[in-house]
């Protein structure tokens, strides 16, 4: 099992990055927030999970160990695969997932593309005590780089469009969250704010 990767980022996509480790480029699937938090040519560390299938070996990467824990735990529910687990973390932070599961918040869970009411009910039933009861942990990872000026806007817009919203919907959401985007806000936090706005 590949538990983590540390190396130089050689490529950044919408929902994936390539990390050069010992001369080998490792393709890592991530959430859009994690992808925009790393920088091309800069060192990065990602917590990872290797998903082994008959015809593939797929690596998923996370900014924090907590995200990795949630990713692995939600997949213990029947019908939840790595792509759906990753989508949950694209829409919600780990603590928001715990809160939704612990409180039975079906509305929050069904904001995730691919999760309907029945699926949300199954997640709550099976994970309420397994994951929902866990206390929120403080991320120990290095904070994401702060965006400069309006640089974050293009990054968040691209991520939202990649998740399925139209450019017009994404622009409207950004217009609403932009006034509250202080200098200390990370791209990850801004993306989550926009997702919450779109989910209203």
From TrEMBL:
Sorted alphabetically, the Gene Ontology BP terms of this entry are: DNA recombination; DNA repair
Q: Which residues form the Helix-hairpin-helix DNA-binding motif class domain?
A: 72-91, 107-126
Annotated Gene Ontology cellular components are: cytoplasm; Holliday junction helicase complex; Holliday junction resolvase complex
Highest taxon listed in the record's lineage: Bacteria
Q: What is its main location?
A: cytoplasm
Tell me which family the UniProt entry assigns to this protein. Belongs to the RuvA family.
- Please state what the annotation says regarding this protein's domains: Has three domains with a flexible linker between the domains II and III and assumes an 'L' shape. Domain III is highly mobile and contacts RuvB.
What is the recorded function of this protein according to its Swiss-Prot or TrEMBL entry?
The RuvA-RuvB-RuvC complex processes Holliday junction (HJ) DNA during genetic recombination and DNA repair, while the RuvA-RuvB complex plays an important role in the rescue of blocked DNA replication forks via replication fork reversal (RFR). RuvA specifically binds to HJ cruciform DNA, conferring on it an open structure. The RuvB hexamer acts as an ATP-dependent pump, pulling dsDNA into and through the RuvAB complex. HJ branch migration allows RuvC to scan DNA until it finds its consensus sequence, where it cleaves and resolves the cruciform DNA.
Question: What is the official name of this protein in its record?
Answer: Holliday junction branch migration complex subunit RuvA
Q: What is the lineage of its organism?
A: Bacteria, Bacillati, Actinomycetota, Actinomycetes, Micrococcales
**Gene label:** ruvA
């Amino acid at each position: 099992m590949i538990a983590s990767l540390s190396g130089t980022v050689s490529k950044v996509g919408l929902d994936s990055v390539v990390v050069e480790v010992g001369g080998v480029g490792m393709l890592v699937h991530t959430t859009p927030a994690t992808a925009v938090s790393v920088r091309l040519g800069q060192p990065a560390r990602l917590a990872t999970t290797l998903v082994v299938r008959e015809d593939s070996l797929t690596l998923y990467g996370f900014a924090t160990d907590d995200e990795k824990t949630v990713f692995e735990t939600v997949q213990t529910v029947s019908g939840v695969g790595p792509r759906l687990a990753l989508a949950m973390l694209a829409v919600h932070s780990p603590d928001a997932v715990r809160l939704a599961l612990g409180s039975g918040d079906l509305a929050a869970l069904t904001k995730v593309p691919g999760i309907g009411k029945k699926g949300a009910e199954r997640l709550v039933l099976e994970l309420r005590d397994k994951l929902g009861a866990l206390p929120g942990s403080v991320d120990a990872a290095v904070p994401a780089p702060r965006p400069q000026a309006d640089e974050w806007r293009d990054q968040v817009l691209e991520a939202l469009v990649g998740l399925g919203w139209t450019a017009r919907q994404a622009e409207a959401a950004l217009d609403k969250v932009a006034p509250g985007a202080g200098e200390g806000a990370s791209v990850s936090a801004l993306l989550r704010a926009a997702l919450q706005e779109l989910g209203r």
